[in-house]
Amino acid sequence: MSRKPRLRSGSGVTMHDVGLAAGVSAITVSRALHSPERVTPALREKILQVVEQLGYVPNRSARQLASARSHTVLVLIPSLSNTVFIDALAGIESVLQPAGYQMLIGNTHYSDSEELALLRAYLQHSPDGLLVTGLQQAEAFSRILQERQLPAVYMMDLSDDGRPCVGLSQEAAGAAMTRHLLQRGRRRIAYLAAQLDERVVKRLQGYRQELTAAGCHDPALEWLNPAPSSMQLGADMLDQLLAAHPDCDAVFCCNDDLAIGAIARCQQRGIAVPGQLAIAGFNDLQAAAWTTPPLSTIATPRFAIGAAAARLLLQQLQGQQETGGSRCLDLGFQLQQRGST
Amino acid sequence: MSRKPRLRSGSGVTMHDVGLAAGVSAITVSRALHSPERVTPALREKILQVVEQLGYVPNRSARQLASARSHTVLVLIPSLSNTVFIDALAGIESVLQPAGYQMLIGNTHYSDSEELALLRAYLQHSPDGLLVTGLQQAEAFSRILQERQLPAVYMMDLSDDGRPCVGLSQEAAGAAMTRHLLQRGRRRIAYLAAQLDERVVKRLQGYRQELTAAGCHDPALEWLNPAPSSMQLGADMLDQLLAAHPDCDAVFCCNDDLAIGAIARCQQRGIAVPGQLAIAGFNDLQAAAWTTPPLSTIATPRFAIGAAAARLLLQQLQGQQETGGSRCLDLGFQLQQRGST
DNA sequence: GTGCCAGATGTTAGCGCTAACAAATCGGCG
DNA sequence: CGCCGATTTGTTAGCGCTAACATCTGGCAC
């Protein structure tokens, strides 16, 4: 009258089974797989053969439970529909995958509270570290990280408080594009923005600085819309802007989506670009090179940012707590001048 | 001389601790959290309070190990940089997240062998089910699914072999667009394709059928390039096509990326669209509405496909093995006629 | 031969949780 | 008043793996 055996997950072959078949104990199998240098080469070879033969698949939960390390990294991004973050994700994947780390993706929908909720939810997986977009999280967020001693690397921006980060100066990039427009002789330069996340605001600050320095800053030319960014919105905002300020001679859009909508609307309305109106975007999405005229924009190294951030995090996880040197990596940006300016 | 306590992962608060503080046993805490109906409301309330107070976070690995269920779904998509799959991903997320399921994302890079390798690697997480893009996997792939009795739902296409799937008839969609071009009076209709995955090939089949039926199929007008799809490639392929076949009067691109490149190149070369050449795309990406002229294309319900596939999988996981009725869901498509045709 | 050390392998226990069974509790009814 | 069944809670064991310690082996110095 023995009790029912439990349901086995996976293939049912355990490390113990492999050991049995290879004539060793389970722990030796574990070592053969995860710290090869602690097992005689011949024995290791034999064990690997048996693993192959039995189709053994290690159980990650058991490993995690026993070792208190999950080999998992939580990645928080504001949106799945914005290519910018997907590119960074690809960069992260390219580093974590080969290193044997699992990537958990959390979509915060640009919301601090959702971000916090996601962090709480994903703590159940006890990630070894975090990759976070941006620097401004809810207060409770940083508290949790601190309590649990969770290492984190921040992406897309540069911090001034010692937190490890990989990105670019959004402010400098905003300033660079504004300077470019000034150099092209524009004086009535508008700033069109949507979504209004921290990066968009920092670009705005760069824009303000340059215009103020040049003596032609006009707050009335700043059009900020908290709605999600889209090409439709770019077109609509352009219409509104021109209706209110027909003398405007350049539009700096906070991202390429808005800019593509704006440029298409100009095309529709017969507004000469850049003759009457220069248009600039931000991010250098693939489509930016294929508008009429092609869009001037700021190219950002998203893939590289993701990859570098992942590498930085892995360094921390592997205990290389290099104390010296700032751990802030500035990967810069590049002004792509095309036909629209 | 007691041994060192093991490193604790997470916060260190266990179910046992919660039970202790609430004056109940660990299993009661487990029940309060996961099967509320098995605990007196008052007690449950108290337990939840203690959970909150102690900041208890359940350990998913332990749960998984003990219950042989991972509450995890593996999602395999061919690419992260193609919006089509990201949209589906968003749909999947919208269903799995609220249901308490974790989504593991595997990027197959359009490769059968990588897909198989990913499946093998992710088996370590013992996913409860799979969401797979397309129907054509390596042979070993299906064998593994069968061996482990892993439920899977296939996305983006329709099967004819009884496998549960959610998508649309790629063939019918290809045919519909071709029919549309024929109705607009075109006779020399080219098919421009890249990446050449199974969906692209099926659209090609639909295209062939319609043209053959109309008596104007010319294999020389099929331009198939295995390289990854991009706007640049679309522009290049258009040039090559027109150099070889100046009499061509319509181009059906297998996706919007190619079409956007092609339409931009026409603009650059002064080729009248649709006057001299009609151009059509596939998928209805956001940018398709903002080219000059706006691109005619086939709108596909990607988000809905992802969501429906996830729901279908959850049904299977929750044991509702409804035997009756096909489990193939055709969510259709819509022809978006715009200025380019 | 003895002692010793380094390296290879094994033993034991326990990570945190839940399935299965066991016990306690309660209300209602003969 | 005691017995029944239903409901609520507890006990026990074990999921598969690995940290820590224990043991074994062989080689080498003296």
Q: What structural keywords apply?
A:
homodimer, about 350 residues, alpha/beta, 434 Repressor (Amino-terminal Domain), Rossmann fold, 3 domains, six-stranded parallel sheet, 12 helices, about 45% helix, about 15% strand, DNA-binding
The helicity of chain A comes to: 40-55%
CATH topology call of the largest domain in chain A: Rossmann fold
Mean pLDDT of chain A: 93
Class computed from helices, strands and strand pairing of chain A: alpha/beta
Beta-strand content estimate of chain A: 5-15%
Biggest β-sheet of chain A: count, sense, barrel?
6 strands, parallel
| CATH architecture classification name of the largest domain in chain A | 3-Layer(aba) Sandwich
Oligomer type? homodimer
Overall shape of chain A: it is: elongated
Q: Which two chains share the most extensive interface?
A: A-B, 53 and 53 residues
Order of helices and strands of chain A: HHHHEHEHEHEEHEHEHEHEEHEE
How much is the radius of gyration of chain A in Å?
A: 26 Å
CATH class of the largest domain in chain A: Alpha Beta
Low-confidence stretches of chain A: none
**Continuous helix count of chain A:** 12
The structural domain count of chain A equals: 3
Number of strands of chain A: 12
CATH superfamily descriptor of the largest domain in chain A: Response regulator
Query: Which strands sit side by side, in order, in the main sheet of chain A?
Result: 2-1-3-4-5-11
- End-to-end C-alpha gap of chain A: 83 Å
GO molecular function (chains A, B): DNA-binding transcription factor activity; transcription cis-regulatory region binding
Keywords (chains A, B): DNA-binding, Transcription, Transcription regulation
Protein name (chains A, B): LacI family DNA-binding transcriptional regulator
Domain HTH lacI-type (chains A, B): 13-67
